[in-house]
Fold this sequence. Notes:
- The protein has 357 residues and is of the alpha/beta class.
- The chain has helices at residues 6-30, 43-47, 49-53, 58-64, 76-91, 146-168, 200-211, 254-269, 299-302, 332-350; strands at residues 95-106, 109-119, 126-133, 177-184, 213-215, 224-225, 230-236, 246-247, 280-281, 308-311.
- It has 10 helices and 10 strands.
Amino acid sequence: MWRTDPLWVTSLLLGVATLAQEVPWRTRQAQHAPLRLERTGQLQPLALLDLTADPGGQLFDQLLQPILRPRYVGTQAHEEVRQHIASTLAALGWSVDADRTFQAKTPLGQKSFTNVIATLDPAAPRRLVLACHYDSIHGRDRFVAATDSAVPCAMMLYLATLMTRDYLDPTKGRSEVTLQLLFFDGEEAFVRWSAKDSIYGARQAAGESSRAVYQTRSAGQPPLTDLDRIDLFVLLDLLGAAKPAISNYISETNSEFRHLAAVEAKLRGNNQLEDVPRIFRFRKSWGLFGPPRIDDDHLPFQRRGVRVLHVIPYPFPSVWHKNSDNGGVIHRPTVTSLNRILRVFVAEYLRLPDYTA
């Protein structure tokens, strides 16, 4: 017998409507295709935005210098770097969560950590995430960690500073994909790198995101979480030195890496990059032993099924974890080229409309 109880019918209709709403969103996430900026006339203005907005590079220096210092957990410098990151993004109008402090057990006892999470449009259902870490090695008072990861932090702040007004303002055209910037605390080990003594902030953030319910679903289906909202997680690390060689280490995001490499090739072909060697190289095969295993902040997200693009040179820079990883190692033409490639990649992934200033 067909039951016509009004409450039951209402529940059924709500369930069907919810399911119908879920499927297109998840399908669009899986089938997302970047927009090619050359078709909109925005490729050159976006790629060369630094030449018009920051011709002498002073703005990048202003963003980098407060980070270019020893900044390990528990120091005043570490706190000042966190405040610099948070205040820069808040002044741009981003939604910034910079006070989510948590405690974690380390080989040196309980420590306090604070991630900085900045979201351009919190209402957007999907997110392109750029991430890096802002701490340096514990107890190293001469180690300023320029590539590891002061420069990546500055690159993310620079992208937001140059692009927010004219390209990323959600009031000019809201998209269902927004940009989120994650600055992780506690990436470095306190004593010796291990699964328990490393990536404290990333482990905390991934766990929180996997538990934060974004949308309930039909009966019997697990809810969608903030982790499900991440289209792509792009981790920047060890950037800033000359001649980085970056490849596709994670096969699940080969298509996204090809897009990144294609952006570089396009800009290089248009003479819109500095005179530096090729940076992004797609490898069809890694041979018998496969790609290198690189332990980094992406792991807690990748293990939970998030698609990860790891933007890190391999081999690592020769100054890795040495006191010589300071301002003198930064190769400005390489950083300028990386900034331009990243801006175009982000703009194309987000399918930004043809904004005008």
